[in-house]
Design a protein that fits this description.
Elements: H1 10-26, E1 40-46, H2 53-71, E2 81-87, H3 92-104, E3 110-112, H4 117-130, E4 134-136, E5 150-152, H5 160-173, E6 181-187, H6 190-205, E7 209-216, H7 224-259, H8 264-276
Parallel strand pairs: 1-2, 1-3, 3-4, 4-5, 6-7
Helix pairs in contact: 3-4, 5-6
Length: 295
């Protein structure tokens, strides 16, 4: 087991990486020569297949563009960059095995994290065991990153369960007619679930009612039942509003009829109307039933 830090402080690691990159990218074009020598191997996995593939492919494209740009600028410290990419199939246990291979068999120089929280945690454990620096860009639960040589490149800060929801809630509040109710749907994938729970909490703090909070299995492709639950929640919400409005209207009519002076002509007209149409009893009592609530 390699010591977590040893004589290589975290700040020195970061400063060295930033300095080297700045030196490469900041050099005038005329001074840059084509990279040569032994390639610098940067290894990592992405979910090229499985339920995370649609998003992971964006990371793949971005990584390939970056490698192309670095090699077009004299490489990394004059050496070409070689990108070793493996498919973790959207499975953390597969990612763990592949990072073992990248470090021990492929002998990569730098380790790039995979996509999404669960695979990142699996890869981070391997990097820590071998004392490797690892950079990741999509860990949705930053507080779980405890390895000193793991560096985040995420855009949402240390509390995405607060920052992301409030960006959306700010946008809603800026609308001409701000929504007063929302439905929160999320997969049970750790980071998505974490941020969705944050959305529910932040919405309630800001006075936006959450009609339905629903979690579904990661990788789910059939949203028919989920859509039905959403429809049911909305209908119940509108049904409750109609029920309250009708109750208020009924009570107001009762109040007006009890305060209005009764006269002989009023009684005569009421009796005449009762003979001209079927008898209908209108109750002014408070409705005894309440709207159905979600289980």
């Amino acid at each position: 087991m390699i010591d977590r830090m040893g004589a290589w402080p975290r700040r020195r690691v970061l400063a060295g990486m930033v300095g080297a990159t700045a030196a490469v990218l900041g050099a005038p074009a005329i001074l840059r020569a084509a990279p040569s020598g032994t390639p610098v191997k940067v290894g990592g996995t992405l979910s090229l297949t499985g339920f995370l593939a649609q998003t992971a492919v964006i990371h793949k494209i971005a990584s390939e563009i970056m490698v192309e740009e670095i090699n077009g600028r004299n490489g990394f410290l004059g050496r070409p960059v070689e990108y070793v990419l493996l498919d973790d199939q959207s499975k953390p246990d597969v990612a763990r095995s592949l990072y073992e291979k990248l470090i021990t068999v492929d002998k990569v120089d730098l380790v790039q994290g995979p996509y999404a929280t669960a695979p990142i945690l699996a890869a981070m454990g391997v990097a820590q065991r071998y004392g490797k620096v690892i950079i990741q860009s999509s860990m949705g639960i930053p507080k779980l990153q405890t390895y000193d040589r793991a560096f985040p490149a995420t855009p949402f800060g240390p509390e995405p369960d607060k920052t992301y929801p409030n960006v959306l809630l700010d946008m809603m509040a800026a609308m001409p007619t701000p929504p007063k109710t929302i439905v929160v749907l999320t997969s049970k994938f750790p980071s998505a679930q974490f941020m969705a729970q944050g959305m529910r909490d932040q919405a309630e703090k800001r006075g936006v009612k959450v009609l339905l909070y629903l979690e579904y299995e990661s990788g789910n492709r059939d949203f028919g039942a989920i859509a039905a639950r959403v429809k049911e929640a909305i209908l119940i919400s509108f049904g409750w509003a109609r029920w309250v409005w009708r109750a208020i209207r009924s009570w107001s009519r009762c109040a007006s009829s009890t305060t209005r002076p009764r006269t002989a002509s009023t009684s005569i007209r009421r009796r005449a109307r009762s003979h001209c149409r079927p008898t209908a009893t209108r109750s002014c009592a408070r409705p005894s039933s309440s709207p159905t609530s979600l289980s």
